[in-house]
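User: Predict structure, ligand adenine.
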Amino acid sequence: MVKVPTQLVTWDDIVNWSQGLANVIKKAGYRPDIIIAVSRGGYVPARLLCDFLLVENLISLQSQHWTEAAKVAEKAIIKFPYRVDLSGLRALLVDDIVDTGDTLILARDFIISEWKPAELKIAALQWISPVAKIKPDFYYIEVKEWVWFQYPWTRLEDTIQFLRRILREESGSKKVWTAQELKDRFLEYYGIYVGDTYFNLALETLVETGYLAKSEEKLYIVK
Ligand code: ADE
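Assistant: Predicted complex:
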């Protein structure tokens, strides 16, 4: 059994899912004048939807989880709460996934009250129905059991975090690793492999940032 159920998503998946999502939106008869990408996860799907729906106007809003100092619970915040006038426009808010839905709810409420579009609908490639607090107007895949989707635009970031978790959890008993041992443990924890390029880049980054030291024998040592 893996520790974190993870699914590797390819660029081809993303293009196919975005095209599928565009068809759902077209079939429903919604014709947005402007697309708003939820930053950062919504950027790529939003850009592809612009292409598949022939929408020229694309802007973004950064809504993200923020861990407050000394607090365990994460809070959603709008990072750069700038103002634009969307009156008279039909808008489509796009994200990659609706997980808890907290960041999307915050973005939606901010846009309605501050940007005042004539209409606002929400689209996401994936919707984790058992945990989400909102259902997007349009989605392509309903996920019925929670999984971490390893999207191609967070390949390095996720791999670094995944490795840090392994190193942290095992640090009580093991502080010196070969690359192969880490690869094997990665597969045990997450059930996926991200490929040598990303895996090696993640290891090098952990060395550069001082989290790991690399010996002449190519052993990785937790500092
Ligand atoms: N962002 C928030 N929830 C996620 C999930 N389950 N998979 C990938 N990215 C996410």
